[in-house]
Design brief:
heterodimer; A: 550 residues; Rossmann fold; 3 domains; 6-stranded mixed sheet; 50% helix; B: 43 residues; 2 helices; globular
Chain lengths: 550, 43
């Protein structure tokens, strides 16, 4: 079987795609796998991709658009056609688009394949997503804070290898007394100011006199290098700092990470590369970064995130003050680095013992682990009584697994505070309203089917049809009042939008199935929240009895 | 460059009506949409 994966976005996405594709190739070695991506993001990672993919096809926009030659749109289209012909000559059986960008959807549309997964276009050029997990990514990733999955796990689900682990056992390499720091990120809101990073660098060099620090970054980070070079407090330690900024050779960065004891940085390609090098990672997530989505995919990952209601934000939301940056203190990060370099386990108890409560109050520390089913989970290490956000993340993991993969995950009801229990009760009202809306949709979808079967004319069923459309005006109201229900509303909105049937009767039948599924999903969430509330009453009774006994 | 872009924009304007009125897009038009989205993502 011939399969091609489209990944046209950045370096980090290519690494995450390779991590998922590696598992597919390990379990199904007979699949002939092709990667299609942008040259500037794939070529630097050939050392990684060549081991996984049987063939790699790269392109750049300038291959088709050369302004110097004064190309016309016709000539550009002709270049594009030649490029696509090369791909189509491969006779691809399954095409998977993991990019979710506009251009990748048009590319997917134009590549011939027996089966297509991921975002494509229909014959009217409208967005078309046939598979459920891609609909989930489109409706939930990089939106809100409720996606419980790492992107690599989502890619694995689309590729059909969820719950499988990589069999690759990389040979353990001797580690040097080296810490690699990547103090930069693609956006200002995702990275700390340089002064905090200077403090962290100073802490390592002062307290670990045998250690070296490598500061790494891309060419766009060159302007910030001077802050480290000119820093007074780093002055006498400069001979123990290696600057590896604007080095195009990603393989040398990878080899450097393979030698390092620890990687510390923001969410970026370097963290994903560190996970490939099996180097422990400490990530500081700020701004739009969603720790559950992008924590480096390995079990040696620690992720520190601010505990503030606006985190994580969205790229379109304006923010000048960046309040989430102030939540994460450099002292907390320094202590975590100290623990890692002294081989002290990052656990709830050790954190309480080593780090002042003042530095812990405003952050969450997550530790990655594999609960045994091959997916990455993040364990919250400081605040053990989960808040409403974390509770819903647990619910959604159970729910999506059941609805999209038909896999039942078991979980004990989490113990919650009285405040969270009240919030859950509030959300149960929202769930009741949402259930009614979807029931309304199902009722009118049934009515529509009956009307069509009775041979009613188009003008006679117009009103019933418009009733179904009312769902799209009602669900946003629920979303506004109960923001944690947005993942559900958005998912079913995308599902309805992707009905592609030709005949009206088929459209009505598909809509009925989706509204039924939506009702089931809402009921499941209601039941899960009910179980948590029941358990909370039980815990309270037990606590009360203990109090009386004492 | 601007000349090339203006040609693309003019070609896209011809398709726009079809997109707005749910009319089928030809293969050549799909290529043009791919081209314009690639250019858009570069800028």
């Amino acid at each position: 079987m011939k399969m091609a994966i489209i990944q046209t976005t950045r370096l980090g996405d290519v690494i995450q795609t390779a991590q998922a594709a590696r598992i597919l190739k390990e379990y199904y070695p007979h699949i002939e796998l092709t990667l299609i991506g942008r040259r500037r993001f794939v070529e630097p990672l050939r050392f990684l991709c060549d081991k996984i993919f049987d063939s790699i096809i790269t392109f750049e926009t300038k291959d088709f658009v050369s302004y110097e030659e004064k190309k016309t749109p016709e000539r550009s289209v002709s270049s594009l056609k030649s490029f696509l012909e090369k791909i189509n000559n491969k006779n691809i059986d399954v095409l998977v688009n993991l990019s979710f960008s506009k251009s990748s959807s048009f590319l997917t549309n134009l590549i011939k394949a027996k089966q297509k997964l991921g975002m494509s276009r229909d014959r009217f050029s409208k967005i078309k997503i046939d598979d459920l997990w891609s609909q989930f990514i489109y409706s939930n990733v990089q939106r809100g804070s409720q996606n419980p999955y790492n992107l690599v796990d989502l890619y694995k689900k689309i590729l059909g290898v969820s719950f499988l682990k990589s069999k690759t056992n990389m040979e353990a390499t001797p580690r040097e007394k080296l810490v690699v720091i990547h103090p930069f990120a693609s956006q200002k809101r995702k990275k700390w100011g340089h002064s905090k990073w200077i403090e962290v660098t100073y802490f390592i060099l002062k307290n670990f006199p045998e250690h070296r620090v490598a500061i790494v970054g891309g060419k766009e980070d060159r302007e910030y290098e001077k802050y480290f070079l000119e820093s007074t407090i780093l002055g006498k330690y400069q001979d123990r700092i290696d600057y590896n900024i604007a080095n195009k050779e990603i393989r040398s960065l990878y080899l450097s990470l393979r030698k390092a004891q620890l990687f510390v940085g923001h969410d970026s390609m370097v963290g994903h590369l560190a996970s490939e090098a099996q180097t422990p990672t400490l990530t500081i997530s700020l701004g739009t970064v969603r720790p559950h989505e992008t924590t480096p995919y390995h079990s040696k990952a620690i992720n520190v995130a601010p505990r503030i209601s606006c985190f994580p934000c969205t790229p379109t939301k304006k923010c000048d003050l960046l309040p989430c940056h102030g939540q994460v203190s450099y002292q907390a990060i320094c202590k975590l680095i100290e623990m890692k370099l002294q081989n002290i386990e990052i656990s709830h108890q050790n954190i309480q013992d080593k780090i002042s409560i003042f530095h812990l109050e405003n952050i969450n520390i997550f530790k990655a682990y594999d609960p045994g089913h091959g997916e990455q989970e993040l364990e919250e290490l400081i605040h053990l009584t989960p808040e409403i956000n974390s509770i819903f993340k647990i619910y959604y993991k159970i729910l999506w697994s059941l609805i999209l993969s038909d896999v039942e995950l078991s979980s004990n009801p989490p113990r919650v505070s009285i405040k969270t229990a009240k919030e859950l009760e509030h959300y149960q009202k929202g769930l009741t309203s949402l259930f009614e809306i979807y029931r309304f949709g199902a009722t009118f979808a049934k009515q529509l089917i009956e009307d069509i079967n009775q041979g009613k004319k188009a003008h006679e069923i117009k009103e019933t049809f418009s009733k179904i459309s009312e769902i799209d005006t009602l669900t946003p109201i629920v979303k506004q009042n109960y923001p944690l229900l947005a993942p559900l509303v958005d998912f079913y909105f995308v599902a309805i939008a992707n009905i592609r049937e030709e005949e009206l009767i088929q459209v009505a039948e598909s809509a009925l199935l989706i509204f039924d599924s939506a009702q089931n999903a809402v009921s499941a969430l209601f039941e899960l929240s009910g179980q948590t509330l029941e358990a909370q009453i039980h815990f309270n009774d037990k606590d009360h009895s203990k109090l009386l006994e004492s | 460059m601007s000349d090339f872009k203006s040609q693309i924009i003019s070609e896209l304007a011809k398709i726009q009506d079809k997109l707005n009125t749910n009319k089928e897009i030809t293969e050549d038009e799909s290529y043009l949409l791919l081209l314009s989205s690639l250019i858009e993502e570069e800028s």
